[in-house]
Amino acid sequence: MRNLAALVVVFAGLGVAPYFIGSDVWLNSLIMVLYAALLGQAWNILGGYGGQFSFGHAAFFGTGAYTVAVLQVQLGVNPWIGLVAGMVLAGLVAAFVGAVSFRYGLRGSYFALVTLAFAEVLRILSNTVPFTGAGVGILIPLDPGIASLQFTEKSGYYWMIWAMTLAAFLATWWLGNSRFGARLMAVRDNEDAARALGVAALRVKLGGIVLSGCFSGLAGVFYAQYFLYLDPSIAYGPAISVESLLVPIVGGLGTLFGPLLGAVVLHALSEITRDVVGDAPGISLVIYGALLVFIVMFLPRGLAGLGRISVRRLLRARAA
């Protein structure tokens, strides 16, 4: 319950931020932090709590983004319906990927490579079929209004991503305190032992990847409505997959607030890098790669783990 109370306090503070921030630049920064936290939490559900490391979460993100975009532009469907459809289709794609992978016992690097392959296949397909705009991409017409999930002010988009991210964090809190979550973490820790205790590992892992895929698709829906443009390299490109896994690894795998910490650090690092070296191509990936190596070598539990270590040392010092 302490985690839930902390979650309520943190998101209550974030919810009133637009009333105290007058600059669109700073508000856009907060929007991108929450967007990255949503992406990271989606990956964290599968990778952190389920122990199944995916290199292809762009497959789910792109499916959600293209679903809402195509339904609006090609069929004139309301974006609210597209939002639900994007989450559902992203979950179905995740279920298919999971069924193909887990049914044949793929784990570790094999599972990671399979997810990467699926994302690349979807990128190639979206680059050829006409209804996605092929290589040209798809442009969503501007139509401000809550009915179209588009806003004239940044604050509207802020509360939109705030609600989406809050939903993902509440789902993760539930996961950490539910029987399903306990089974998922048991599979993560020792799948063979979990099977011996009667855990249906295949069903549990499928549930984890579907939940993860749905929230990745939700992040894709937000991206489409916020930037109003998609192409295959954006929707299914490796940058989305890298950001999805890097955020929780930096913040702390398998923790509730790890993705939020990671999102803040990565966004701050990205802004500092841009100010120092400009928009040099590929420089952000170089910085991210160096940071990932540092975290894996010296902080395997991420920034959240560093906080736990500090608290333990403080308690030991007081006890002594």
* E-strand count: 2
Radius of gyration: 20 Å
What class, by secondary structure content? mainly alpha
What overall form do the CA principal axes indicate? globular
User: Strand arrangement, largest sheet?
Assistant: 1-2
Protein architecture, described:
It is a single chain. The protein has helices at residues 2-15, 17-20, 24-47, 58-75, 79-103, 108-126, 154-176, 179-189, 191-196, 201-227, 232-235, 238-251, 258-277, 283-298, 302-319, and strands spanning 138-139, 229-230. By secondary structure, it is mostly helical. It has 15 helices and 2 strands.
Write the layout of secondary structure elements.
Elements: H1 2-15, H2 17-20, H3 24-47, H4 58-75, H5 79-103, H6 108-126, E1 138-139, H7 154-176, H8 179-189, H9 191-196, H10 201-227, E2 229-230, H11 232-235, H12 238-251, H13 258-277, H14 283-298, H15 302-319
Antiparallel strand pairs: 1-2
Helix pairs in contact: 1-7, 3-7, 3-10, 3-12, 3-13, 4-5, 4-6, 4-10, 5-10, 7-10, 8-10, 12-13, 12-14, 12-15, 13-14
